[in-house]
Specification:
Largest sheet: none
Order of helices and strands: HHHH
Number of strands: 0
Shape: elongated
Radius of gyration: 26 Å
Strand content: under 5%
Length: 91
């Protein structure tokens, strides 16, 4: 891990067992505890972000999805009523 300034801090409380396991794993990986935890957290954060950012589906599922998007929508009575109200003039 490159030496960079880190102006932010995240504190985490762990059990004695978690502390021992993390310290052992960091030592085995040849890393500091901070470096080990940051690498693990960044990897997991990227996984979660990538899972939520991209929508992956089969061609058949995408075809049904696109068909549903292209289909005419159903009127929502509350919105129809709202759009019938007189407009409020802009200030």
């Amino acid at each position: 891990m490159a030496a960079t300034t880190r102006p932010r801090r995240i504190d985490v409380r762990v059990s004695a067992e978690q502390d021992a396991m993390i310290r052992e794993a960091a030592a085995l990986a040849g890393q500091t505890v901070t470096g080990f935890l940051l690498d693990a957290a960044e990897d997991r954060a990227r996984e979660v972000i990538d899972e939520r950012r991209d929508l992956v589906m089969s061609k058949a599922t995408f075809a049904r999805f696109a068909e549903a998007l292209d289909a005419p929508g159903e009127p929502v009575p509350e919105l129809v009523e709202l759009f019938r109200l007189p407009r409020i003039p802009a200030a």
